[in-house]
User: Fold these one by one.
Assistant:
Number 1:
Amino acid sequence: MTLWQALLLGLVQGLTEFLPISSSGHLVLVNHLLGISDDSIVFEIAVHLGTLVAVLIYFRRDLADIIGGFFRGGRGMRVGWMLIIAMVPTAIIGFGFKDFFESMFDAPKYASAGLLFTSLILFLSERVRQGTRGLTGIRVIDALLIGTLQGLAIMPGVSRSGSTIAAGLFAGLDRDTAARFSFLLAIPAILGAAVLHAKDFVALPIDMMVPSVAGFLVAMFSGYIAIEVLMRIIRRRKLYVFVIYTAVVGIIGLIFLPA
């Protein structure tokens, strides 16, 4: 992997991890279009960690409230428990169907189909009545629904942020809360993936060190920008732009990419 390819992939990861257009789907399509075959699991984790740092910085106050809540009680503790509950179905789906989902990444058309699914679920989420419940109003059933949709987003082309935000809107959360909970839920998901592949960092090839660091930095900065942009778009009820984008890219992929 060359440095410019690492920079491009880091940018794609940073923008698409949080914008509801699927980072996995775009990485699969970009890798295929550029003919990148020497993809490294370490590089993939590095760019994901870049987006993790972005969300940690952006939601540092929410995180401080949650962590403090487990020591002194209150709203933060409740939100923390809802995040933990949401991770249960995500973990079950992730571990139970890991091999099945990973096999899909070998066929670009699965990513295209996943993008069409993302388009559909975003469209439906914009059609439901706007909710009014905030972070303290999240129920166990809401957390389980959001966690389940996050688990299904392991499939290429299915946006994690899009699925979880849509699930929050379906559950009756207000738009800001649906997005905020989705981003906070990304933290344990990304950390879990990093821990699973921690041993791979020990055997990091020398020639992948610079691309991995470069990808990490680009993903971090572009990820922070993507969060800010998406929060504004969600508050203005303009997710339809992503509905159109994912539908168009998905259809083009199904037509022109190999099975």
Number 2:
Amino acid sequence: MEKGKSIIFTVSNDLSYDQRMQRHSKILVNAGFDVLLIGRKKTKSIPIKQEIFRQKRLNCWFQKGKLFYLEYNFRLFIFLLFAKADIYVAIDLDTLIPNTLVAKIKGKKLIFDSHEYFTEVPELIGRNASKKIWEYVAKTFIPKVDKAYTVGPKLAELFEELYHKPFACILNVGLYEKQIRFEPKEVEPIIFYQGALNEGRGLEQLIGAMKNLDAKLWIAGEGDLSKFLRTFTIDNNLSEKVKFLGFVEPSELKKLTNQAWLGCNILEPKGLSYQYSLANKFFDYMHSGVPQICANFLEYEAINRKFEIAVLSDCETQNLVQTITNLLVDKGLYQRLKENCLKASEVYNLQIESKKLIDIYKGL
């Protein structure tokens, strides 16, 4: 594919905090493509930061639920119908329908990038009608795409079996850099969580564990549980130990991670999406040389067998206390995990993954 081909990426969330899509957009612009990243505008969205790729936010009256998805898909369809592109890219199932319709109408190429096992997210547990709708969308529209990829090898295998479509794997990793670690400025060690404050992330249990830990907890992100978790922290007299940082831009996360003693990536076994996950925070901690306490799920276990960079744990509060206390005491174990992070980052990095990403788009 020659230089100058245009790509439109579409996400259903606020594009300012989508680290994966910002990385991919920059990679493809540097490879000669013209990239437009489309997301939605939220009530608390920050101003769009100037980037080397183009950006667009769509305004919606509704902010969540079925009405939001209906409105956003309609607005997205209208926008894409009049936008010029050679390649349309749907990020997850909730943008796949308008992209498919427009790509077929215009005779253009269509790519599907699945960030998660959408039909098995915790939010759909017990909501059978909604789940069936998304399963129908997946089975109907995924086979129609020209190319597809996802965030982990196990998920790629699963999708290939379900939808009879080849799926590549593009890991959600950062650039490899020689590690320059900043010493924590706090007297107490800092446990750091980055990501959405949503159901199933073990955040209530983690905050509860702080009662019995000689450490501080920094939480970067917002979500459905934002208000509840802040209230829970106050009610348990943990405001001195737990610090909520709110939304943090991807460019600032690295600085915060570099100050951490321990990263946190625990998950409850709610829905297969979590059990097949391979989150960007897992690699972000790795690349900063920060050991982590991590969910004992398929992908994390597989990487941890190759490079022991994490201590695997469930979300039970007492188990979290015991595991983190052990790391505080066992300096040898902590140092080994830290050194392995640096070794693993030489294998799992954006320099390697970017070549795979560019090959996908140049291969169309």
Number 3:
Amino acid sequence: MRILIATDAWHPQVNGVVRTLTMLAESARKFGVEVSFLTPQSFPTVALPSYPDLRVALPRPARVAALIAEAKPDNIHIATEGPIGLLARRYCRKLGIPFTTSFHTRFPEYVSARAPIPESWVWAVLRRFHGRSGAVMAATPALAGELRGRGFRNVVLWPRGVDADLFHPQQADLGLPRPVFLSVGRVAVEKNLEAFLELDLPGTKVVVGDGPARAELEKRFPHAVFLGARQGEPLAEAYAAADVFVFPSRTDTFGLVLLEALASGVPVAAFPVSGPRDVIGTAPVGALNDDLRLACLTALDASREVCREFALKHSWEASARAFVDNVQRARAEHDAAAAVTRTSAEESSVAT
């Protein structure tokens, strides 16, 4: 089976969406599913306002149509609601081709944090975008429930995984006063990093990542250590060198970095909100508390071995199988409905 995924988020971007899609393709290949991508690499791009390191594709409908036809996919999945996703959706709708979608980012909260646009307006746009999807994939039961409550149809689960070979406990030392409290992710307003950097904690606060808010935060919090963006083994070493992983975001739909930290044997401290609450639940692998400082200090007592064991239950292969199952089920339901429609039309024609 060949699945084409249309996505506006792609390399060299470093984020959970890109990592999820990359690992999906690698894992699905193990059981005979070929995943290809329609990405910004095929189009001219421009820098996103306030995010100069993020570039937005400027696709043309004819080019999108040609690339999809060239790929000859058995199924089409639309991963993002950007220009590429919109034109891929338009192509499918025009030709009557079924498609699935996934919900990765809380755009209503992100947009409202930057512009005076009511969240309800953005939710309405997203509802329309996903309205014709055969399956809207959500990472957690809580997010799936929220989407259903907001009027989204055909919502299904697509759990995430972690690369436990790359992210694992190891001897690593950043050469900083301990305990080391680490946060990993884009350094941007929606990540709520101030809530972490303002805390009165012993040891050292470390931030791995880059983004538009980095320069300002470095100036405001000179005692924190900003290491910039890291990938691969350097990122794995940063995780392993930490004593607690701090996740201050209140808006992330999942937080793939949570599993990466746990696989590295590092307990998590976070607010008790959707995302960390769905990943951790009541497992003794950290602490969730509205008092983030207390959560950080409590997490120091969690067992690193238990954190690792917890993360090992989340594999990318299981995630990929869930994704493929969702795609196949949605296609089967579409084909069955189409067959009923054809039969009804034929019977009506014979009757007349």
Number 4:
Amino acid sequence: MEPQRLQFLDYIAKTKRMSVHTVSAYGHDLLQFTDFLATQYVTSLADCKPIHIRGFMAMLLQNNLTPRSVHRKVSSVRGWFRYLRKQGELTVDPMSKIVLPKMPKVLVKDIPATDLHNLFARFPWNEVANGERDRLLLLMLYTTGMRLSELIGLKVGDVDFYRQSLRVLGKRNKERIIPMHPEMVDWLKAYLEGHTQAMLFVTEKGKPLYPVYVYRLVNHYLKLFSHAAKTSPHVLRHSFATHMLNNGANLLAIKDILGHANLSATQVYTKNSFEKLKQIHALHPRK
């Protein structure tokens, strides 16, 4: 099974162009699955039955994995079997009769717009080291909705001041153009004066940013002005979409800006807005 696993990982890395992180996650999930099959004395994927898949899921749940984590791992296995069927190495898909555990419905939690306004308007950015960079970085995450990985990969050459837009390389190397907020255009021009690095954002030592660095930076500033339970770059992406929708933006336009492949991924924000509408309506005196 190991040669088949490595062949599949090579396929999703080179043909599907999945990120190194995603390929690594798939590899770990599939290794965990084949290790489980070994405990069931299954030495060939052709001998894998639905009962083995269900046993794998039961084992994961017994190990206190969340339904979301189980979904992800079983999704990795499903993709592997689908690939092997296309290659003609399997004739029957044992995943066809598998029912996944129900996922708990979790609404996206955004940072209140007033909190973010106060952060940008009241914080003394000029009085802290790298304040100009930090302010621009936060504003870019909030006004574009881009992913953390996309922000880190931005180069100076991705900025188009003439069209007031940014070129972003998203998942699976899909490129998209995001319009820039007018306020961000002014800050970006000032920031780039004397900027000599190829990357748009760098650390104090002139090195490229990395995920943990950005997470700590965003968390630090948001905690100063917000009591939200989660304060991360991804929450700013949620906030962008939610606030845009609350102010009448078209759902399809938000989908394109976020770089979602399917509209269903964007529709989660409609639920968040509906919950807020219900809270407001609950204040009606005739309730």
